[in-house]
Specification:
By secondary structure, this protein is α+β, with helices and mostly antiparallel strands. The chain has four helices and six strands. It has a six-stranded mixed beta sheet with strand order 3-4-5-2-1-6. The chain is globular.
């Protein structure tokens, strides 16, 4: 089992945000040596599009505040799937439940190491929430 400290900062930060904003079924897929596009996928289920937007906004804000480079976001209202791209280290895939089952990244990338993450491993210290001046979507 991978421990938090074994993971790059981008994954630690991303997983913490997912759990903080109540994403469900958070998985880490290790793609090192398998895919050239990124080393890891963080995959999570959102209960609604509003939750997905909140997570994307928080990822954007916190990665920027922590000076963790990102490449952008793929998101379109009504699609039920969004991708937050943090470059070679990480891509965060957010799905509504039915879309996650349909796309099934864990099946598509079964040759990678897939691990269920535990919330208690990624609890952050309480952070002061600033205004919404950094909203992305």
């Amino acid at each position: 089992m991978t421990t938090r400290n074994d993971l790059p900062e981008s994954i630690q930060l991303g997983a913490s945000i997912l759990f903080e904003l109540r994403a469900q079924d958070v998985q880490l897929i290790d793609l090192r040596g398998i895919k050239d596009v990124t080393d890891y996928f963080l995959v999570a289920t959102c209960e609604s599009e509003a939750q997905m937007q909140a997570i994307l906004n928080e990822l954007h804000k916190e990665f920027k505040a922590n000076k963790v480079p990102t490449l952008g976001v793929e998101y379109k209202e009504g699609v039920r799937w969004a991708v937050f791209d943090a470059g070679m280290d990480l891509m965060v895939h957010l799905f509504e439940e039915e879309k996650r089952a349909e796309i099934s990244l864990d099946r598509l990338y079964a040759d990678g190491k897939i691990e269920e993450l535990n919330e208690e491993d990624f609890v952050r210290e309480a952070t002061k929430k600033s205004g919404d001046d950094n909203e992305l979507v």
